[in-house]
Amino acid sequence: MMLYEIHIQNFPDTESALATQAPIAHTLCPDPDHNTPCEIPWSFTLGDDNNLILGIYTTPAKATALTETIATLTHHPTALHQATPGHFNELETQYRIEHP
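^ thats the sequence. predicted structure below, dont judge the formating
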Protein backbone atom coordinates (compact mmCIF):
# COMPACT_ATOMS: atom_id res chain seq x y z
CA MET A 1 0.00 0.00 0.00
CA MET A 2 1.23 3.46 -0.90
CA LEU A 3 0.07 7.03 -1.22
CA TYR A 4 -0.50 8.08 -4.82
CA GLU A 5 -1.65 11.16 -6.64
CA ILE A 6 -3.73 11.02 -9.79
CA HIS A 7 -3.35 14.29 -11.66
CA ILE A 8 -6.34 15.11 -13.86
CA GLN A 9 -5.17 17.80 -16.26
CA ASN A 10 -6.16 20.41 -18.81
CA PHE A 11 -9.14 22.10 -17.18
CA PRO A 12 -9.90 25.54 -18.60
CA ASP A 13 -10.61 26.98 -15.14
CA THR A 14 -10.89 26.15 -11.45
CA GLU A 15 -14.68 25.83 -11.62
CA SER A 16 -14.43 23.08 -14.25
CA ALA A 17 -11.85 21.20 -12.21
CA LEU A 18 -13.96 21.39 -9.07
CA ALA A 19 -17.08 20.25 -10.94
CA THR A 20 -15.26 17.07 -11.93
CA GLN A 21 -14.85 16.02 -8.31
CA ALA A 22 -18.45 14.77 -7.99
CA PRO A 23 -18.38 12.09 -10.72
CA ILE A 24 -14.96 10.89 -9.56
CA ALA A 25 -16.17 10.73 -5.95
CA HIS A 26 -19.19 8.73 -7.09
CA THR A 27 -16.84 6.26 -8.80
CA LEU A 28 -14.79 5.88 -5.62
CA CYS A 29 -17.78 5.79 -3.29
CA PRO A 30 -21.06 4.97 -5.08
CA ASP A 31 -23.02 4.97 -1.79
CA PRO A 32 -21.92 7.91 0.36
CA ASP A 33 -24.19 6.70 3.19
CA HIS A 34 -22.49 3.31 3.56
CA ASN A 35 -21.67 2.06 7.05
CA THR A 36 -18.25 0.63 6.28
CA PRO A 37 -15.05 2.48 5.36
CA CYS A 38 -14.32 3.18 1.72
CA GLU A 39 -12.12 0.52 0.15
CA ILE A 40 -9.68 3.21 -0.97
CA PRO A 41 -9.24 6.32 1.20
CA TRP A 42 -9.22 9.39 -1.06
CA SER A 43 -9.13 13.18 -1.07
CA PHE A 44 -8.94 16.01 -3.60
CA THR A 45 -6.87 19.15 -3.92
CA LEU A 46 -6.20 21.64 -6.70
CA GLY A 47 -2.79 21.82 -8.29
CA ASP A 48 -1.15 24.37 -10.52
CA ASP A 49 -2.78 25.35 -13.81
CA ASN A 50 -6.27 24.20 -12.70
CA ASN A 51 -5.23 20.56 -12.42
CA LEU A 52 -7.28 18.42 -10.07
CA ILE A 53 -5.25 16.10 -7.87
CA LEU A 54 -6.79 13.00 -6.33
CA GLY A 55 -4.90 11.49 -3.42
CA ILE A 56 -5.43 7.76 -2.81
CA TYR A 57 -3.95 5.15 -0.50
CA THR A 58 -3.96 1.79 -2.23
CA THR A 59 -1.98 -0.87 -4.03
CA PRO A 60 -0.04 -0.14 -7.22
CA ALA A 61 -2.43 -2.27 -9.30
CA LYS A 62 -5.54 -0.53 -7.97
CA ALA A 63 -3.92 2.89 -8.44
CA THR A 64 -3.17 2.08 -12.08
CA ALA A 65 -6.67 0.75 -12.73
CA LEU A 66 -8.27 3.77 -11.06
CA THR A 67 -6.15 6.14 -13.13
CA GLU A 68 -7.43 4.49 -16.31
CA THR A 69 -11.03 4.60 -15.07
CA ILE A 70 -10.75 8.31 -14.28
CA ALA A 71 -9.22 9.08 -17.67
CA THR A 72 -12.16 7.34 -19.36
CA LEU A 73 -14.71 9.01 -17.08
CA THR A 74 -13.38 12.56 -17.37
CA HIS A 75 -11.95 12.57 -20.90
CA HIS A 76 -8.98 14.46 -19.48
CA PRO A 77 -5.34 13.42 -19.50
CA THR A 78 -4.41 11.73 -16.26
CA ALA A 79 -1.09 10.81 -14.73
CA LEU A 80 -0.29 8.59 -11.77
CA HIS A 81 2.47 9.71 -9.39
CA GLN A 82 3.76 8.74 -5.98
CA ALA A 83 2.36 11.28 -3.57
CA THR A 84 4.35 14.42 -2.91
CA PRO A 85 5.87 14.15 0.57
CA GLY A 86 3.53 15.79 3.06
CA HIS A 87 0.50 15.58 0.79
CA PHE A 88 -2.39 13.30 1.70
CA ASN A 89 -0.66 11.79 4.77
CA GLU A 90 -4.06 11.70 6.47
CA LEU A 91 -5.18 9.00 4.02
CA GLU A 92 -2.60 6.53 5.29
CA THR A 93 -3.67 7.25 8.86
CA GLN A 94 -7.34 6.90 7.88
CA TYR A 95 -6.66 3.50 6.30
CA ARG A 96 -4.80 2.23 9.37
CA ILE A 97 -7.65 3.30 11.67
CA GLU A 98 -10.40 1.89 9.44
CA HIS A 99 -8.61 -1.35 8.45
CA PRO A 100 -6.89 -2.67 11.59
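The mean pLDDT is 92.
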